[in-house]
Amino acid sequence: MRLTLKVKLALIFIAIATLTAGVLYFVFVNYNANRFDQFVLDQQKDSLVASLVDYYQTNGTWQGLAFTVAGQGMGPGMMSGQRGQQSDSFTPGMGNGRQNNGDERKLFGLADENGILIIAHRDNSPLLGLKLSEKVLQNGRAITVDGKEVGTLLMVERLPSYNLAEQLFLDRTKRAYFVAFFGSVITAGLLGLLFASRFTKRITTLTEAAAKLSQGDLSRQVEIEGKDEVSDLGLAFNNMAQQLLTSNDLRKQMTADIAHDLRTPLTVVSGYVESMRDGDLEITPERLNVIHQEIRHLEQLVGDLRLLSQSDAGELKLNKQSLDPAELLLQAERVFENEALQKKIKLSVLATPGELSIPGDEGRLLQVLENLIANALHYTSEGGEVNLKSSLIRTKTSRKCLIEVQDTGSGIAQDELPLIFERFHRADKSRHTDVNQSGLGLAIVRALVQAHGGEVVAESELGKGTKFKIFLPVD
Q1: C-alpha count within 13 angstroms, C-beta hemisphere, residue 414
Q2: Burial of residue 401, with CB atoms counted within 10 A of its CB: 0-12 exposed, 13-18 middle, 19 or more buried
Q3: Distance CA 76, CA 164 (A)
Q4: What pLDDT shows up at residue 29?
Q5: Per-domain boundaries in the chain
Q6: Spatial CA neighbour of 298 closest among 271, 273, 267, 266
Q7: What are phi and psi of 321, to 5 degrees?
């Protein structure tokens, strides 16, 4: 039988209420009953002490008391006689009292001023006539007349039985407890169903949204109520749905971009070849060079896609060796030195060879730097600067190499920064037809840096340039 979450939660509420009521009942039986016995004994003890003091003041001795107690039980009514007289009166429910069947309960005993037990209660009757120990007497109630201790009142620890009034009180208390018990269980069940319904409603909403999401409705969002774990789950679901929607849009855009980037060079090559085949165009070195460039463009695009595919599959192999980051920057500078000179852009390296050593694949790290420098030169205007730096970053737990590529170009908008490492993403949509600008450069940079166990981040401000920071582990 399959139980719903609502039923399970309601049963948990009922189980907790039942357990709590059971614990309370245990406390009631084992603690409150003892306290009730003590209350009854203390109540009678106070009355008896007053009566005993009056008796001793009147008679000056306990002699007449022993005979009376032995015959009728102890009670304030029999203390009303004159000196040397014995009272025949008896007040039910006080003193030793009598059970419902007429037997004495013998709740109280009395020791004289010498500690000798002259009246025994039911627990110490074998000690009648004997001198009691100080420990036993200390547990009793001293009876003082005119500043002199004339005796000690002793009592049993618990009531051996209850009279009609006491039993009636306990029965009513138990009935009240059982009413409270069943009332709490029923209330807990109703509250459990109420809260479970509200709780499971939110879970059901998430389930329905997940089902819609699995059917392709990536725009599905759930309403967030409250601030608890279910709300956190709802937020996580909404974020996931949004990321899936974004990824799906990027995938569609990437597919369109790949088709475009493949179609453009193929169209050029196909057009030239067909025209040459038909004799419309003469075969010249210049035209062959155009065809060759477009083929190289295709090869580069296919190679970049293959590299990213290997990175996604965890199959990107690196030939690691100990490298000097300053030397890597100097090599990259020499590659772009002429291009920077032609664009009148200052390209400089701020790093000292021999200061650091990092483990890495030289070819792959050069590819990272070349992609970043090419990107920086592309967006830096004449008279601008591109600076390459390397330094050591120390933390409490690690040491890292920081490589920076900073330009004074046009910069990147803040809303575009989180997306620049996505495949085929272009902050400037007009770049779509730029040569060798497939939109995979920064995606490759991130993949290669992560393959080296590093991290790459970008900082930028429109009109003030962009800085790429690469963090790599050191030897």
Answers
A1: 1
A2: buried
A3: 20
A4: 67
A5: 5-164, 229-312, 318-473
A6: 266
A7: -155, 170
Beta pairing, strands 108-112 & 148-155: antiparallel
CATH number for the domain whose boundaries are 318-473: 3.30.565.10
Successive 10-residue mean pLDDT values, the chain, 475 residues: 68 78 72 76 84 88 61 37 35 38 68 90 86 89 90 86 81 81 79 76 80 79 77 83 79 74 83 88 88 85 82 84 94 92 93 91 92 92 94 88 94 86 64 53 90 93 92 91
Kindly compute the dihedral angle of the four CA atoms of residues 306, 310, 312, 314, in this order, to the nearest 10 degrees.
180
CATH C-level class of 229-312: mainly alpha
Q: Out of 3.30.450, 2.40.10, 3.30.1660, 3.40.50, which CATH number does the structure's domain 5-164 have?
A: 3.30.450
Residue type, 28: F
> DSSP of 290-340, one letter per residue?
HHHHHHHHHHHHHHHHHHHHHHHHT-----EEEE-HHHHHHHHHHHHHHHH
**Computed from CA positions of residues 435, 436, 438, 439, in that sequence, does the dihedral angle turn out positive or negative?**
negative
Does pTM top 0.90 for this prediction? Answer: no
- Do the Cβ atoms of 71 and 133 come closer than 8 Å? no
DSSP-based three-state secondary structure for 400? strand
Whether the CB-CB separation of 437 and 424 falls below 8 Å is answered with no
Q: What is the DSSP letter of 360?
A: E
